[in-house]
Specification:
The protein has 438 residues and is an alpha+beta fold. It is 25% helix and 32% strand. It contains 12 helices and 21 strands. The strands form 2 sheets. Strands 3-4-2-1-7-10-9-8-11-6-5 form an 11-stranded mixed β-sheet. Strands 12, 13, 14, 15, 16, 17, 18, 19, 20 and 21 form a 10-stranded antiparallel β-sheet that branches.
């Protein structure tokens, strides 16, 4: 049944990658039986635009032929087709005994792994391969998939509690956190279609964390924690760069009261692990990888929700990065730029003159301000402020460089966040220690 449904999705999308479509999947458990419902629907309005090259429905014969294809596919897969004035679709339903040993049926069922549930999603491998055989269809697909929806409903009799849920790209370990709503009897989850399309071979399931004691370690879906000034080379990205990894072990270290540092967020150059952990009776640290630690600093700022420090045994603390909470913005980026400048003002007052970097890639066609967010999330726009400390300036307190910037949350939404990075004067020496490993 799963293979037939995948085939149906592939054939349907091959008709028109520009068609506005929606996936709906629901999973419930009644007694000894799982009930799984999957539905795909396509907008006739968008389909007719592709067929006719116009902005209004036309070519009734083609639409009837399109409906007939739905009917044929539904009959082949033992499902039902439906047609309304605005859309056509297929509904597939499965009832599977919870104790089944049939491999294909097991592949469609949620499975428990410790405190997590692994929920299989609709396979898009063949669909993506078809699109990528032709650049025009691929570019159209990317434009169109940003508006597509994938809605999953899962009953609480299967998963009684969800702390957070995410997709994970297996090769890079990159994560995409998703929105979860509670309607009392079910959890309603909105899954972005774009990463499923971009990574069809390596994203096949939704991961649901059920531990009551765990909270989402980040509101952002997949931030990179490498500092621009120090480790910004894309070739150095790895699974360890996702400092919000939900499996990261968190420890709270208790010792003396300690005292707050004089640098950003109450931290300063050269602080050791022990120095930081002793501040305020015990600062929470989570080791990420190498020199990186997720930390709750002694002094937090309302514009930032996550903090990462870089430190090693030779140089102590040498880099800080903080990222802000998610902000939904207009096409012009108004809300994000407002938050950026709210943080910029006190930084300018404290550290003085800065360089504003407001650029867009010269070959990017949509350079008008009304496409500000579109350019940002496509990597074409840079909006940053940069400070470089004059020699021996005491107000910088061993800070060598400061970067403040805006980043898109992902490539398929109008949400973003601000970030700030502090590079201390011992950072280059700390970086040199990695060269010995090569």
């Amino acid at each position: 049944m799963k293979k037939i449904f995948v085939l149906a999705v592939t054939i349907l999308m091959s008709f028109s990658l520009m068609s506005c479509f929606e996936f709906v999947q629901s999973i419930s458990l009644e007694g000894e039986s799982y009930h799984i419902k999957r539905q795909i629907s396509f907008s006739k309005y968008f389909l007719s635009m592709i067929m006719s090259g116009e902005s209004a429905p036309s070519d009734a014969l083609s639409l009837k032929e399109f409906e007939a294809e739905f009917d044929n596919l539904a009959e082949t897969m033992g499902a039902e087709s439906f047609h309304t004035p605005s859309e056509s679709g297929i509904i597939s339903t499965m009832t599977i005994n919870r104790n089944t040993q049939v491999e294909e049926e097991l592949a469609s069922l949620p499975r428990k792994d410790g405190t997590k549930f692994i929920i299989p999603l609709i396979d898009m491998t063949e669909t993506a391969e078809k699109a990528q055989t032709n650049w025009n269809s691929l570019s159209m697909a990317y434009m169109f998939l940003t508006t597509a929806e994938y809605q999953l409903t899962i009953g609480k009799e299967i998963v009684p509690h969800i702390s957070y849920a995410y997709l994970i790209e297996q090769n890079s370990n990159e994560q995409y956190f998703v929105d979860v709503a509670d309607d009392g009897k079910n959890y309603l989850i909105e899954i972005p279609v774009m990463p499923l399309f971009e990574h069809p071979d390596t994203i096949s399931s939704l991961i649901v964390e059920t531990d009551l004691n765990k909270t989402n370690p980040m509101e952002q879906a997949h931030h990179e924690d490498q500092p621009i000034g120090l480790l910004g080379n894309e070739s150095e990205e790895s699974a360890a760069d996702n400092f919000a990894h939900p499996m990261t072990a968190t420890t709270r270290i208790h010792s003396g009261e300690g005292k707050t540092g004089n640098g950003p967020f109450g931290l300063e150059q050269g602080m050791s692990h022990e120095d930081i952990s002793s501040i305020g009776g015990g600062v929470q640290l989570s080791h990420i990888d190498d020199d990186r630690y997720l930390v709750i600093p002694p002094k937090s700022h309302p514009s930032f929700g996550q903090y990462v420090v870089w430190l090693n045994e030779h140089q102590g603390l040498y880099y800080i990065k903080a990222t802000g909470t998610t902000i939904k913005s207009s096409d012009y980026g108004t809300e994000l730029k407002r938050e950026f400048h709210n943080v910029l003002a006190p930084l300018e007052k404290k550290y003085g003159k800065f360089t504003l970097i407001d650029t867009i890639a010269p070959d990017f066609v949509l350079s008008d301000q009304q496409y500000w967010m579109y350019a940002l999330r496509n990597g074409a726009r840079t909006y940053q402020a940069h400070w470089e400390a004059p020699d021996n300036n005491p107000k910088y307190n061993n800070i060598e460089e400061i970067w403040l910037g805006i980043e898109s949350k992902n490539s398929y939404s109008d949400e973003g966040y601000i970030w700030i990075e502090y590079k201390f004067s011992n950072a280059d020496e700390a970086r040199d220690s990695f060269d010995d490993i090569l």
